[in-house]
Design brief:
elongated; two-stranded antiparallel ribbon; mainly alpha; two-stranded antiparallel sheet; 4 strands
């Protein structure tokens, strides 16, 4: 006769999750509260540091857990909040930086002979102040 087959990993009864008095789970007046919910409640109450937050959780729920776990839950919750905040943002380029409340002017593209005359008119005061010799040296240096 063959022996009865058993599972490789038999189910082990696990203790109930952390609970608090209050609601109505099977009429026992017990509601399960996750550790993440406890951290959310502590953060909503303004407890930002691990010492304050863990003290709040200990006094309200009677549960102890390590400081690194607090920091991990807090970081995960903050990351989720940031992700939700960025969800409505549109991808793509941001507008150019504003200068004194105005957007930067568009780039000027050359359109022919008119720009040459404008450039020469702009150089006339430079020639008058520096002299033709120095302006010629500047042009040679840049050109």
């Amino acid at each position: 006769m063959a022996r009865p087959r058993t599972a490789k990993h038999p189910k082990v009864e696990e203790p109930m999750p952390e609970t608090v008095a209050g609601g109505g789970q099977e009429g026992h007046g017990i509601v399960a509260v996750s550790k993440a919910d406890m951290v959310r409640a502590a953060l909503a109450a303004g407890m930002e540091t691990p010492t304050d937050g863990l003290g709040f959780i200990k006094s309200k729920y009677g549960i102890d857990f390590p400081r690194p776990m607090w920091s991990s839950y807090k970081a995960q919750l903050r990351a989720q909040e940031q992700k939700k905040a960025l969800k409505g943002a549109k991808p793509g380029r941001k507008p150019k930086a504003a200068v004194e409340g105005y957007l930067a002017p568009p780039k000027v593209t050359p359109k022919g002979d008119g720009d040459l005359l404008d450039a020469l008119e702009a150089m006339k005061p430079l020639v008058a102040s520096l002299g033709a010799e120095k302006v010629h040296r500047l042009v040679d240096l840049l050109g």
